[in-house]
Each structure stands twice: as structure tokens, then as C-alpha cells.
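Lab channel / #folding
Pinned by the channel admin:
"Please post every new chain as: sequence first, then the C-alpha cells as a reply. Keep commentary short and put observations after the output so the thread stays searchable."

First post following the new format, from NK:
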Amino acid sequence: MAKDKKNKKKDKKADKKKAKLKPLKQQIKRLERELAAATAPATAPQPEGPVISPLAPAGGFPALPVIDGVRFAAVQAGVRYKGRVDVMLATLAPGSTVAGAFTRSATRAAPVLDCEAKIGLKPDTKAGAAILVNAGNANAFTGDHGAKAVQAICAATAKAAGVPEARVFTSSTGVIGEPLPHDRITAVLDDLTAAQDAGAIYQAARAIMTTDTFAKGAGTVVEIEGKPVRIAGIAKGSGMIAPDMATMLVYIFTDAKIAQAPLQRMLSRLTDETFNCITVDGDTSTSDTLLLAATGRADAPAIDDLRSKAAKTFQDALHSVMLDLAHQVVRDGEGATKFVQVDVTGAASPADARKVAMAIANSPLVKTAVAGEDPNWGRIVMAVGKSGAKADRDLLTIRFGDMLVAEKGWVAETYAEEAGAAYMRRDELTIGVDLGLGEGESTVWTCDLTNRYIEINADYRS
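Reply from TO:
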């Protein structure tokens, strides 16, 4: 009996000793793992390609309607990137009309200046047209070399595609200030024209990507007087995103019958409601280009009067495609983890509402608070105050979603910081501000600002 008691005491001492040593052993194992990781060979396998944005559409690239009168192709030209398609060509059938919207940057790239000039020309609708885009080099701030590169590409594309040079529209995206190796692009034109296919829009969307983590596409089919009209579009954009006309490349195609002048008016109006209402970092690009092409191949009647029911139906459908693409650009904002809608109401004017909305959406302090899931509504107060819009502290109301946060110059009595923090953990957020001064309102979309944004842009050229 005494022996059993003695053994039990020994066992208890041993158990206590093991319990004390367990954390130390766990720490040793953790340190061993960290040391192994730190000393792993440099040739260890690494994940390929960028990590896809957590805000990317769940279904991936959508199935888009095929647009009669448009063919696409994409190939590898090695402009900057290796092992991926980086040049795309879209050819448009004779009779197509083309409208455009472009960056208002004072340092616009050579392709932008060329496209602007051509959009203003009287369209030769009897001839076809072509759109050629390269990624990796923006052909911006490249002086006379840039203009000559555009001229060489347009001439070669016109010959290869069988269209007038005045109907060739080019875009370039990528690094600014480096001469475009245009001979690499002209060298693959035969391959591009041979590869054209009406269903290759996804490949075209892939070819125009730079820091994008996913290809962006949107489309729809609507009925006009019982006949289907199709719209399909692709976009590129991830960083250097701000209004005037946001920072991106966008190409939208439709088989609708509509002349160039009404198509241009419609596009300009809808651009202000979509692409000019998004921002990732407040920086406007040198290369923004939005082209809208209508082939006129649909059986539906022509859209001649923008006040008609047919025009409204088409415009609503086009708006939905443009807004979808604009939102995808924000969802792919460099390093983004949160999609943020900013609603401003009660402003003295629509212009004031927009000033406040953009001040909030572009504030690094607001965006970093969102990234850190910190419900720091004081930063929103700051952004309202700095916006330059008319504001009254005691009339201001702030909401997170449906949650009242602040009113009458002070935090709301019903607001709880824990509830605000819980709301900020969502992937999609709405910040609402009512200025209590008038009827002006504005909605813009943005994303958070994370460490990943810095990493991407610090290493962009290396």
C-alpha cells in the first residue's frame, strides 16, 4: 500500500514536469519550423501568378453574348511580359460606329491623343474598323517616338485587317516613360488576324491585364420591339484609378443599330454615372480609354431618337454593363480586401455631394481604417470638412449601412462601438453621409488601402 502511494507521488511529479516542459517543446518545434522555412533553398517552388482578389466575382469570367460583326484574337508579343498573351485585336464589320471617352490628364499618352483625333472625324461607316491593345508598356511620355510608334502600328494593322488607317484605334497600358517596342507588335499582326474568332473575347480580356488579378467581363441581352440586342464588354484596371475617366481600358461591343452621334452622347452621359464614380487610389492615368462599338447587325430597329422607349431600354442595359465593369475594377483594386459604397445625400448641390463622396472615398485615413476594420467615423467627419463642400457640423448624419453612427454634431446615443466594429468586418460596406442642407446626392465606389497596395507599386517596374 505504501509502495503504491509512493508510485502515485512519483507519477504526479512526472506529470507536473511534463506539463511544464510541454510549452517549451512546442516553442522549440515552432522555432525549428521557422528556421527550416528561413533556410529553405531559393529554388523552392513558389505559387505562380498573382493571388486573385478576394472580391473577385464568384463565378469567374462570365459567359458573354457573341456580338455579330466583331472578332477577337490575342497573342504573345513579349512587349514586356513573358509567357502570357499581351496584345489583343478586335475587328469590326463594315457599318460599325465607334464612340469613345478618354482621360483628361494633361500628360495623355500617344495612343489616347490618336484615338481622340479619330473619334472626332466623320465616320466612314462603309469601312470596317480595328481596335489593337497592348499591355506592359503605356507608350506615355515617350515624345516623338511615341507618336511614330502609334503611326507604325496603325499602318500595319490597317494593312493586316483590311481597314482604313483612320479606323484603327490603339491603346497601350503599363509602364510610363519607356519607348514602346512597336516592332514586336507589328511582327505578330499576321498571327492575330489568323487567330480571329467571334468567341475569343475572354482571351482579349486576358491580354490587356497588367496588375489585374482577374479578367473582367460583363454583358447582357435586351429586347427592343421584340428583337434581341446584345452587349458585351471587357475592362482592364486595378491601380491608378480615379475619375476623369477613371484609370482603365474598357471596350464594349453591341450589335445595336445606332449612329455615331447619338452613341457618343449616350456613352458620355453614362460614363459620368459609372466609370467617373469609382476610385482606388485617387490617381488619374495617362492612358484611360473607353471605346464603344456598335456593329448594327441586330434585327432590332435602329435607335435614332434618344428620347424613345427603344433608346431608354438600350441605355439602361448599357448602363448595367458599364457599372458592372466599373465595380469589377474597384473589386480588383491593388491589394483590396473591402468593396466600399459611399452614399452622400442632403448636399447643397449635386457638385457638393460629389466633392464630399470623393473626399471620403479617396482619404488614405478612411481607407486604412476600413482595411483595419476600425469603425473610426471621426475620419469621415474629417473628410467631409476638408472636401470644400458646404457643411454644418450640427446637421451632419453618418451611417454604417443602416446603423446610425453620428448625428447633431455628436455620436448617436444608440450607437455601440462593438456593433460598428462587427459591421466593418464585412467584405462589402456602405458609408452613408447626409449633410442636411439640400437635395444634392452622389454615390461613388472605392476600396480599402492595404500593405499589399504598397508592395505592388513599390515593385511595379522590377
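NK: Residues 2-38 form the longest helix (37 residues).
TO: also worth noting, DSSP finds 13 helices and 15 strands in the chain.
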